[in-house]
Amino acid sequence: MEKEVLLEVKDLRTYFYTEDGVVRAVDGVSFTIHKGEVLGLVGESGCGKSVTSLSIMRLVDAPGKIVGGQIIFKGEDLLKKSEEEMRKIRGSEIAMIFQEPMTALNPVYTIGDQIMEAILTHQDVNEEEAKKQTIKLLDLVGIPDPKKRFNEYPHEMSGGMRQRAMIAMAISCNPDLLISDEATTALDVTIQAQILELMKDLQRKIGMAILFITHDLALVAEMTDSVAVTYTGKIVEYSDVRSIFKNPHHPYTYGLLESIPSLLSEKTKEPLPAIEGMVPSPYRMPKGCHFNPRCPFATDICRKEMPELKEVEPNHLVRCFHPVNVKEEVS
Amino acid sequence: MRNYLIRRSLELIPVLFAIAFVSFWLVSKMGDPFAVLVLNPHVRPEDIQRLRHIWHWDDPLVVRFWYWLKDFVWPRQGWGLSTLAPGQTALQLISRRIPVTIAFSSTSLIAAIILSIPLGVYSALRQYSVADYILTFFAFFGMSMPTFWFGIMLIYLFAVKLHWFPAAGYHRAFFIIKGVPVMFDKAPRWMQFLDEAWHLTLPITVLTVFQVGGWLRYMRSSMLEVKSMDYVRTARAKGLPERTVIYKHAFRNAVIPIITLIGLSFPGLIGGAMITETVFAIDGIGRLTYNAVMSQDVFVAMALIMIFSILVVIGNFLADIFYAVADPRIRYS
């Protein structure tokens, strides 16, 4: 059964025009999120994940600029909307949680005030009703003693509690899409697990779709339905989560998966394999496939041409001239 | 909040005491105030000795400080050498001179706040626009202009050439009302006020321009810094109108460091007043200080230093309170 498409990003390009040259932070990214689906956007730092999410919100600051593509949300192109129309979508239909709960909340206003603000902006309710809703939300995201917490300032709360407050703010208007930009990265592992559990739980309850941005593949396995792996502003592999974990085709995805420590592996005594080298400087992209300097399978063609995103299995897209085939290699 | 205020006020006492002692020590190094008397043929050496003794000048520094402190808290007559009229205490003299200084320095303080904060915000919101460059130019002009030179230039232009404002003084000696001369003190209040305002326009301008430049730049950079903070992005992601994002979320955070800056500017304000009063020949406290120091009247000079210190300390105290009001992170600590 085909699910209803909620968001379709088509060939999105967001470039940064800096003094040192043009940085193609997002360079032709396309993906689709269905209603209630969780899509993971994975990649190392500097691969354009955050810029992709900010582009969807149309919150890219100068010198960044969305130069091409379409962002079709509920059948309408967000890039064609006026700032005022966009403002009405932000926070009500598309909400966002950021990486740093320490700095994402305004230090001079109480968290209750900050959550209430979103409700008052998008819903036709009075202050008293908004306050009631806020307290209910704080309770829903698992903040103990919500009535008291309503009047507390961000600095009086722990990182985990602040991220819960951020989630409460994000879901306050029942958004159709929640963008979680590394929302658990800055938290302790135990708190991280709690927050993920909470997000999953809320996703089931509210039925919202999530764009789950992370560099941590282990979280992807736990949270998402499908995965897009990005490298230097381009998607290099795109498939449902099972297929990617079972059968990664792109050498980069393969490398990322290899570098996850495993308790069950026999190789626990060996050092963890890592992808050689680093993400190339945005000002000096290698010719051909951007991954070629780090790729163990690179050949001449990889150094000359950028491969296209091709379907190697049904619904499994890979941008590689020499896709790895794990099934064959392992057996 | 009440405990915070009480604790902070009590902390002022040792601070003022320390300021008093250090400045007393420094002022006593200024020279022998009785040395000038040697030149006077009518004063016998024995009299000088006697005076030294009366003023405790022959005692050790700490003892002298103690007598001075006592005299400062309970003023006695003739406490001062050359700047005082007979039978006048230093505090009487100061209290007669202080209103005009407070009037024009507090007016320029308020004017500078009212101008610099909105202009700084405006400059930050339109970074690198023509308006931003013009404001930046004037900010640097104000900051780098020596107050005495700027004052003289204003006098030359607006008093000497254009005759719009008077060149000196802070009020006229008398008014002519219906052809009859009326002394300033006898004139109606509103006439006194308007006349003083007219006289003080140029000095207030000098002091204001000087303050606005720096504060505007600070406000601009503070606003620019806050504008790129995560919580401003969060506010936008909530779908708030841009006005709310800027004036509610960014502004309140950006203004916090400026409050400290304004609190710290109190000494500069009084120092600036000293120069401005000299340039515009205003008989305020600044000019009195200058005269007291020049005529080696250590007693009046010391009293003035203490008054300044109290003003500065109170200024910082007020800034701290405003700071606590603006920033919840320090409210009850």
Short description:
The complex is a heterodimer of chains A (331) and B (333). Chain A has 331 residues and is of the alpha/beta class.
General description of the model:
The complex is a heterodimer of chains A (331) and B (333). In chain A, helix 4 runs parallel beside helix 7 (159-171). Chain A has helices at 49-57, 83-89, 101-104, 111-122, 127-140, 146-149, 159-171, 189-206, 217-223, 241-246, 251-258, 300-304, 326-330, and strands at residues 5-18, 21-34, 38-42, 64-73, 76-77, 94-97, 177-181, 209-214, 226-231, 234-240, 310-313, 316-318. Chain A is α/β, with parallel strands linked by helices and 331 residues long. Chain A is built from 13 helices and twelve strands. The model of chain A has no long low-confidence stretch (mean pLDDT 85). The two termini of chain A are 34 Å apart. In chain A, the strands form two sheets. Chain A has an eight-stranded mixed β-sheet, with helices on both faces. In chain A, strands 2-1-4-5 form a four-stranded antiparallel β-sheet, with helices on one face. With 333 residues, chain B is mostly helical. Chain B has a domain at 92-297: MetI-like (MetI-like fold). In chain B, 72% of the residues lie in helices and 2% in strands. Chain B is built from twelve helices and two strands; from the N terminus they run H-H-H-H-H-H-E-E-H-H-H-H-H-H. Chain B has helices at residues 2-28, 45-54, 61-73, 90-125, 130-144, 147-161, 189-227, 230-237, 242-264, 266-279, 285-294, 298-326, and strands spanning 174-177, 180-183. A two-stranded antiparallel ribbon of chain B has the order 1-2. In chain B, helix 1 runs antiparallel to helix 12 (298-326) and helix 9 (242-264) packs antiparallel against helix 12 (298-326). The model of chain B has no long low-confidence stretch (mean pLDDT 84). Chains A and B meet through helix 2 and helix 4 of A and helix 8 and helix 9 of B.
